[in-house]
């Protein structure tokens, strides 16, 4: 009989991880050796998943959005848990979106205590609400981590067993790293340097950051002796908001759309002005020196008082050192951002220090020739083989 695995993802990034995990499991167990059910998006459905409902029903972000969709979310949590319990599969894999997937896992564990449950993508227990790690032991058997320090964090906090399987970005190094002649290094004698502006992928990020980023771009342009090729990679769902914000910028960057254009911009970039988020890890792996800024709402700022992480950007968190200047909330000012960005465009010790630090980030993230999805599938397969029969 084929193994029956339920996979539950709650947003686009989880859908991509789930699809690659499904591919790797089919290679490991043979296509006829595994059957998938659960919740996923287009990528997982292309791998054969018949989703219980559209993933868009639960892909919401932010306090206001969650409250507005609360009845639907509760309904979908109950529906998903009931379907898993009725299916009585060989394993449940939950992927990210802990506000949804962990509630499903708790209900399933109460009804099927011997069912192995794997959590692909660790919650940020190392940043805030560290008590979640110990609580997860009651309903998660193993965590598949994307960041190299997370296994030690779970061990320190009393969480479930945790294995670093690798971040999907480690498979994109060829897309991120420049080929011969793609990136200019200072001094810039023939062409101007390319500097990226990355205001984020969420509407709230873009709305709050665009004004200060625009003033920073103008201040840096006015200070430098020569021109700058400013490039803004945008994602489609916030592109109209970005275009609206750019209307008041005195210096307007060139907007590029799509993943291919984004990575081409990364390969040519000299430096970057970025919102905090996964993009900071992309920039580090691309070896693009950066300055990070971020602003949140007043309510979210109150929540930040409970954050225990010393740093906000992923390169700093991975190295446990402030290698990237980061300015949050009231510190996210034109003077701070411009003052830290200018040295990164020239051949300075600040630029050299970041590049050396990014080499350490890449070394910490490395998993050799393995693919993250294959390492994740190996852990899942081992747990499948060791599972107890579900009575």
Summarize the structure.
The protein is α/β, with parallel strands linked by helices. Helix content is 47%, strand content 15%. The protein is built from 17 helices and twelve strands.
Shape field: elongated
> Helix count?
17
- The topology string of helices and strands comes to EHEHHHEHEHEHEHEHEHEHEHEHHEHHH
Strand order in space, largest sheet = 2-1-3-4-5-6
The proportion of residues forming helix, as a percent range, comes to 40-55%
* N→C terminal distance: 16 Å
Derived from helix and strand composition plus strand pairing, the structural class reads alpha/beta
Which spans of ≥5 residues are poorly predicted at pLDDT below 50? none
Q: Main beta sheet, described?
A: 6 strands, parallel
CA-atom Rg in angstroms: 22 Å
Overall average residue pLDDT: 91
Instruction: Give the beta-strand count.
Output: 12
How much strand? 5-15%
Description of the molecule:
By secondary structure, this protein is an alpha/beta fold. The chain is built from 17 helices and twelve strands. A six-stranded parallel sheet has the order 2-1-3-4-5-6, with helices on both faces. The chain has a six-stranded parallel sheet with strand order 9-8-7-10-11-12, with helices on both faces. Helix 9 (203-223) crosses helix 15 (334-345).
Topology overview:
Blueprint: E1 3-9, H1 12-29, E2 34-39, H2 42-46, H3 63-68, H4 70-87, E3 91-95, H5 98-111, E4 117-120, H6 131-136, E5 142-145, H7 150-157, E6 162-164, H8 173-176, E7 194-198, H9 203-223, E8 229-234, H10 239-246, E9 254-257, H11 259-268, E10 271-275, H12 278-286, E11 290-294, H13 298-303, H14 314-319, E12 326-328, H15 334-345, H16 349-365, H17 372-385
Parallel strand pairs: 1-2, 1-3, 3-4, 4-5, 5-6, 7-8, 7-10, 8-9, 10-11, 11-12
């Amino acid at each position: 009989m084929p193994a029956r695995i339920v996979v539950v993802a709650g947003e686009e990034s989880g859908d991509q991880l789930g699809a690659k995990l499904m591919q790797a499991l089919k290679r490991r167990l043979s296509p006829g050796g595994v059957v998938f059910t659960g919740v996923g998006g287009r990528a997982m459905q292309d791998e054969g998943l018949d989703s219980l409902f559209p993933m868009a029903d639960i892909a919401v972000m932010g306090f206001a959005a969650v409250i507005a969709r609360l009845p639907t979310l509760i309904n979908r949590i109950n529906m998903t848990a009931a379907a898993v319990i009725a299916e009585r599969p060989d394993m449940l894999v939950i992927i990210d979106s802990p506000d949804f997937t962990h509630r499903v896992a708790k209900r399933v564990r109460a009804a099927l205590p011997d069912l192995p449950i794997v959590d692909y993508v660790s919650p940020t227990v190392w940043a805030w609400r560290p008590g979640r790690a110990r609580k997860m032991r009651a309903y998660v058997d193993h965590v598949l981590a994307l960041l190299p320090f997370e296994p030690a964090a779970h061990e320190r906090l009393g969480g479930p067993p945790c294995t670093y399987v690798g971040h999907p970005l480690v498979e994109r190094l060829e897309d991120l790293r420049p080929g011969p002649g793609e990136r200019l290094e200072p001094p810039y004698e023939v062409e101007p340097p390319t500097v990226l502006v990355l205001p984020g992928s969420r509407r709230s990020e873009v709305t709050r950051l665009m004004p200060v980023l625009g003033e920073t771009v103008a201040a840096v342009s006015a200070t430098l002796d020569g021109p700058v090729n400013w490039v803004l990679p945008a994602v489609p769902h916030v592109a109209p908001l970005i275009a609206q914000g750019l209307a008041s910028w005195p210096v307007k960057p060139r907007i590029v759309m799509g993943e291919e254009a984004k990575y081409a911009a990364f390969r040519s970039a000299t430096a970057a002005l970025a919102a905090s988020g996964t993009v900071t890890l992309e920039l580090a792996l691309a070896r693009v020196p950066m300055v990070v800024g971020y602003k949140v709402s007043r309510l979210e700022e109150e929540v930040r008082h409970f954050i225990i992480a010393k740093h906000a950007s992923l390169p700093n968190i991975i190295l446990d050192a402030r290698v990237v200047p980061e300015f949050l909330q009231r510190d996210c000012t034109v003077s701070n951002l411009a003052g830290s960005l200018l040295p990164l465009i020239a051949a300075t010790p600040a630029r050299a220090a970041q590049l050396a630090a990014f080499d350490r980030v890449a070394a910490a993230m490395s998993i050799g020739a393995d693919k993250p999805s294959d390492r994740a599938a190996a852990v899942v397969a081992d747990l499948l083989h060791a599972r107890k029969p579900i009575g």
